[in-house]
Design a protein that fits this description.
The chain is an all-alpha fold. The protein contains four helices and no strands. The relative contact order is 0.15.
């Protein structure tokens, strides 16, 4: 049994094949999710643990290096998610206005969630 959302009906009315609209929505949602999660985890990696006062000793150095690698990795992940959303937005701008508004809304919600989590929104 098929369920049709307002998005699916709008896509069908505009002549977009349903499989394309589902793939597009999935891509947008996945990219927005990655953006919020990578930003959250990068921020968490940036925070210095309370028990780690100084970076003395090999274990403390290894822990700090590990946190730096995590921060870099999640930063790359966040950047790629932003780039993917921008590419989706560029593609959507050539389609119907509601396609573009879907990407814009997903991006706005992701940025709002990052802000509410205490992160910084990057442009």
């Amino acid at each position: 049994r098929e369920e049709f959302s307002a998005w699916s009906v709008g896509a069908l009315v505009a002549g977009t094949p349903l499989a394309v609209s589902r793939a597009f929505r999935t891509e947008v949602k996945a990219s927005a999710y990655l953006l919020t999660q990578c930003a959250r985890r990068a921020r968490s990696a940036r925070q210095r643990p309370a028990g780690l006062k100084s970076a003395e000793g090999p274990r403390a150095q290894a822990a700090l290096r590990y946190r730096q690698l995590l921060e870099e990795g999640y930063g790359v992940c966040e950047r790629r998610a932003r780039e993917k959303l921008q590419k989706l937005r560029t593609w959507a701008s050539k389609k119907h206005h509601w396609v573009l508004s879907y990407v814009d809304e997903a991006t706005r919600r992701a940025e709002l969630e990052i802000t509410l989590q205490g992160g910084e929104v990057q442009e």
